[in-house]
Amino acid sequence: xxxxxxxxxxxxxxxxxxxxxxxxxxxxxxxxxxxxxxxxxxxxxxxxxxxxxxxxxxxxxxxxxxxxxxxxxxxxxxxxxxxxxxxxxxxxxxxxxxxxxxxxxxxxxxxxxxxxxxxxxxxxxxxxxxxxxxxxxxxxxxxxxxxxxxxxxxxxxxxxxxxxxxxxxxxxxxxxxxxxxxxxxxxxxxxxxxxxxxxxxxxxxxxxxxxxxxxxxxxxxxxxxxxxxxxxxxxxxxxxx
Length: 241
Fold this sequence. Notes:
241 residues, mainly alpha, globular
């Protein structure tokens, strides 16, 4: 970020390897935590934020080179860093050992839903990149970052594909959740997020909004979704999420 501000950004394999190393440490943490608890490590908000960060980085590592979005790491890394620092400093870690047998449908629902949020987070990041590039084009102030951003049309396609990926994963998560049963609050929360993204995709498919509006909606929807995490009922000894 400093290099971008100084207008001297250069691509570096070190940045990618640092992100990959961080992902491996995240994976190790989640694996050891899950092994100790005997279930998917999504028992409290602290673990949810770590799992969400892991999902964001994992999806970035998969799509970063595939969709010519290598610079997305410059935007993704600070987001993940802030999420994890917030989790470490502000959220209590009150996990408890497993007291009942794991429920596969419940754990599938929890894990897939958070991974869907990871896709939505990257859609928001791509949306921010789109808006930054569009602003530079409109103001004719082309900074160093502009020449490393993918074509604006490619960003629009990436946003759409990431939204569809997240929407499909969230659909799977909701279906698996219904297999174990939801209370009223969980139904409203889960279906509410699903409807918000479904509406965005529908208006985009019908060409009712411009790509810029889709980018704005992607950023706004993820910001809204992030605030709803406080309303979750997590995996617990009683078997709820």
